[in-house]
Amino acid sequence: MSTRFNLWKRYKSTIRHQLPFKRRVKNYSSYWDQEVVIDLQTQLGNMKKVGKGLRNKLGKEERDAKISGGVYMFSIGSNDYMSPFLTNSSSSLLFHTSSSRFVAMVLANLTAVVKDIYDMGGRKFVFMNVPTLGCLPAMRLLMKNPNGKCYEEQVSELAKLHNARLSTVVLPRLARELKGFKYSLFDFSTSLHRRMTHPSNYGLKEGEEACCGTGKWRGIDSCGGKRSVKKEFEVCNNPTEYLFWDSFHLTDTAYHQMAREIWNPTPPPSSTITKTSPLAIVGPYTLHQLFHAAIHH
Length: 297
Hints:
This protein is α/β, with parallel strands linked by helices. The chain has a domain at 8-188 and 278-292. It is 40% helix and 10% strand. It has helices spanning 40-58, 60-69, 78-87, 99-120, 137-143, 155-177, 188-197, 252-263, 287-292; strands at 71-74, 124-128, 182-186, 206-210, 212-213, 234-235, 242-244, 282-284. The strands form 3 sheets. A 4-stranded mixed sheet has the order 1-2-3-8. Strands 4-7 form a two-stranded parallel ribbon. Pfam families: Lipase_GDSL.
């Protein structure tokens, strides 16, 4: 269950059973008008249908064992927070309530679905936080920041608020309330920021401009000429040297690195560590530990 950022490509061949209930925010913008969009509640409904099918095929005991042994990954929030700015829609709920309440609603939806999966027998969960959205090439271009720095107001503030509540309120509360609940939280925001500010430490040459797209930072999402916004586009010579593939997504090189980080992390380069960034960006379990953790009901 995810938004735009997918770390599973690196390891999906090693996982025998994967049910990709992929989540994106509903279709607000032409940026996503050619994509299949499934909301979170629909994905949950699809999972319940799969559960019933497994029971009919395997029996209740084996079905329950598979559900309880599964690992459920959530990466939500980015599109919820970006969409109002991408569409400049005054009707968006974000512009009619406080940032705090809007973030609370997003996290309440997440919490409700986690509890539903827990009630079905799920015990192992993985969460990714939200990156600094104002640093994405598309958002830099949209905000027309003259100094070229990340747009730190509004959209990035929503991301910071989301991440703080997820790590300090939502997940600790779920761990207290749900017996046997185990989770891994991947600090995607810090991982991405380190690569943006110190790309050479990760074998990259470019940490801000996208490989494929149009305009400054290649922030116009025209890659492939399939978007209605612009048919022309540029592509870099060597995507492996870039952090961003297009205005929203990372390159395979970056995703592979992050997949290794969440699976079994190693200490980051010392030059990327600051007083405000944590040393460990995965916890309390790594993904490898979570897959092998004992299940308690």
